[in-house]
Amino acid sequence: MTSPTKAEGSGSAVALDPELETAAEAAKGEKKLEGRSPGQLMWQRFKRDRTGVISACVVIFFFVIAALAPVISALYGKNPYTLYAQEPDYPFLLDDFAMPTGSFGGMSGDFWFGVEPKLGRDVFTMLLYGMRTSLYMAVLVTLFSVTTGVLIGMIGGYFGGRVDYWVGRITDFFLGFPQQLFFIAFMPVVTALFVDPRDETPTYLRAVAIVLVMWFLGWMGLARLVRSSVLSLREREFVEAAKVSGASPWRIVRKEILPNIVTPILVQGTYILPSTILSIAFLSFVGVGFTEPTPDWGRMFAVGADVYEQDPMFMFFPGVAMVTFVLCFNLLGDSVRDAFDPKTGR
């Protein structure tokens, strides 16, 4: 009588083991099959790209330094506007030819990057505030250009027909403008509309004019890119299904089309910003952008071009800073593109 009982007990114990094993395997399977959003996948791919991570750190460093320029200037004890060569505390900053005394453009413990020829201003704080001016302006122009390009491109691509035709012709018209020549010719016109030619143009008005002119000619490339992407998406099955279900055009564009073109928009935006910085520097270099005493990268290059034979160090620091930032931002754009679309990986 005892052996059947033992057999039944052992049988019941054996019967429970497969259930426990099945539950454990199911739990492991759930962990293995845990899904990730496209953003999480993109972030995982981006973190594995060492070049992209380093470039992102450098770009963030530049923006932090630009944002903290007044704080750094206060701690440093100098500003980009004071003519230190005329201060009694620094009587020998410039020589008889108005060039910095000492080696490497007057670099010293008081002036880390030297002093400006002819005027004796501090180069370090000029560089900090010049970065601040260029980066803030470039961010504004990029935001306006991206927003305008996305709106116009989506309108032309989604509605098609006559709307697409006229939007395309308007885009072609603006593309016909020679940008650099238009900047030089139109900037004085914009400022003259608001300021008497005999008066000095305020800095804020120059900034507004630069943003308007660069925005005016900066959205066409992205508009064409968005239009072509929308044209390929509007005939897809999920868009047709949304139309059949009665969704409004605004909802279709916002919910179905826009999430699928975020990648080219973001990547193109990372190329627009460094290009905008170079254009802003070009305007100041040729004398139609920011003028004295506003610190700006382009104006520093203009001064350095006049004295590079006597003081090559004055152009060295702004040149290295601009090349580093533009290069890292372009590399960051490549890394973001590869993270979103691994098929285009280098």
Please tell me about this protein's structure:
Helix 12 (262-285) crosses helix 13 (297-307). The model is unreliable at 1-16 (pLDDT under 50). This protein is mainly alpha-helical and 346 residues long. The chain has helices at 2-32, 38-47, 50-67, 69-76, 123-159, 161-175, 179-192, 203-216, 220-233, 237-244, 249-257, 262-285, 297-307, 313-340. The termini are far apart. It is elongated. The protein contains 14 helices and no strands.
Compose a concise summary of this entry.
The chain is mainly α and 346 residues long. The chain is built from 14 helices and no strands.
Task: Give the secondary structure arrangement, pairings included.
Elements lengths: L1 H31 L5 H10 L2 H18 L1 H8 L46 H37 L1 H15 L3 H14 L10 H14 L3 H14 L3 H8 L4 H9 L4 H24 L11 H11 L5 H28 L6
Element order: H for helix, E for strand = HHHHHHHHHHHHHH
- Whole-Å distance between the termini? 76 Å
- The helicity comes to 55-70%
**What Rg do the Cα atoms give?**
30 Å
Largest sheet: none
Rounded average pLDDT? 80
Helix-strand category: mainly alpha
Low-confidence stretches: 1-16
Shape: elongated
Number of helices, counting only DSSP H or I runs of 4 residues or more: 14
Strand content: under 5%
Describe this protein with a few key phrases.
346 residues, mainly alpha, 0% strand, disordered N terminus
